[in-house]
DNA sequence: AACGTAATTTGGAATAATTCTAATTATCAC
DNA sequence: GTGATAATTAGAATTATTCCAAATTACGTT
């Protein structure tokens, strides 16, 4: 597999979004972002590292952590945590919840209407002001969904 | 503060619930459970350890972890995770969400109608069968609520 | 094209929370 | 009381992540 054949998937917005935050575009950051866009299975930092290394053999795990953190900071990627497991990364920016399959260990996105998030926030007692809501399901999915 | 004055808060159900699971009642387990019932501020294992040690100076941190795990197994306590922070423990068994105050770091229970949990589950695409839903809010609370 | 400055990357050490292990101790049924 | 089994203990080990200081790279200016 050569580098030339794969489309550059990131919407070119990367360099722009980075610049907006006063950050530079680097091969490492672009590649990490590409990897997240191209296989949206909520990989861990280790998994991203493994996917990125063949393309950029010199990259270090610390850099993968740095890049992921940067992408989260720029609102290009979301960090997803489930119980005490390693943090997973998700380039889906639409409002959605996560479904953790107890059998396969896989994580699936579940798109939800924004009204539902709003409704949830409205259930908060007075004085509580939420700027984020996270919803996580745990259970079994019928074979290979998503 | 002496030991004698505090009421034994656990509903005596502890020994029973433990027995139901083929487990034994021990001073360590009772004390850990008491501590959770008496100050419901979602303590970490370390915090539970600190609260328990004055009463039972010989107790070890490993035992606190073991006891907490046991209580979770018996459905007397729920483990609560927020991002990568240490696991917190919550004896509130009613259906509820958690609100993490970004300013104080405190965690508050937010009771929610069961209908809401049901409604959420009904939003899942066909083939997804959830047996648990977790809802977490992040934001600011007006001073000392809860 | 070379330069200086600052951001970024790197490898390895350090940290934090938790789990594991092997030995000791406590509990319950008889 | 005694013995089989479960629970506790102290410390080592593990896992995911962050920190650090040094080396590299990129960018804007000449």
> Based on CA inertia axes, which overall geometry of chain A fits?
globular
Number of strands of chain A: 5
Could you tell me the radius of gyration of chain A in angstroms?
17 Å
Major beta sheet of chain A, specifics?
A: 3 strands, mixed
- Mean pLDDT across every amino acid position of chain A: 90
Strand content of chain A: 15-25%
User: What order do the strands of the largest sheet of chain A run in, or round the barrel if closed?
Assistant: 4-3-5
Major protein interface: A-B, 38 and 38 residues
What would you note in describing this structure?
2 copies of one chain form a homodimer. Chain A is an alpha+beta fold and 146 residues long. In chain A, 34% of the residues lie in helices and 21% in strands. Chain A has 5 helices and 5 strands; from the N terminus they run H-H-H-H-E-E-E-E-H-E. In chain A, the strands form 2 sheets. In chain A, strands 4-3-5 form a 3-stranded mixed sheet, covered by helices on one side. In chain A, strand 3 and strand 4 form a beta hairpin. In chain A, helix 2 crosses helix 4. Chains A and B meet through helix 5 and strand 5 of A and helix 5 and strand 5 of B. Chain B binds a DNA duplex (30 and 30 nucleotides) through helix 4.
């Amino acid at each position: 597999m050569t580098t030339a054949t794969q489309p550059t998937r990131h919407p070119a917005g990367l360099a722009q979004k980075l610049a907006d935050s006063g950050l530079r575009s680097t091969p490492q950051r672009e590649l990490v972002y590409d990897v997240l866009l191209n296989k949206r299975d909520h990989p861990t930092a280790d998994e991203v590292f493994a996917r990125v290394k063949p393309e950029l053999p010199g990259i270090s795990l610390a850099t993968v952590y740095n890049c992921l953190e940067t992408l989260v900071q720029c609102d290009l990627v979301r960090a997803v945590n489930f119980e005490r497991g390693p943090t997973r990364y998700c380039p889906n920016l639409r409002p959605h919840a996560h479904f953790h399959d107890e059998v396969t260990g896989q994580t699936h996105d579940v798109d939800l209407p924004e009204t539902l998030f709003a409704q949830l926030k409205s259930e908060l007692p007075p004085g509580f002001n939420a700027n984020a809501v996270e919803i996580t399901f745990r259970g079994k999915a019928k074979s290979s969904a998503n």
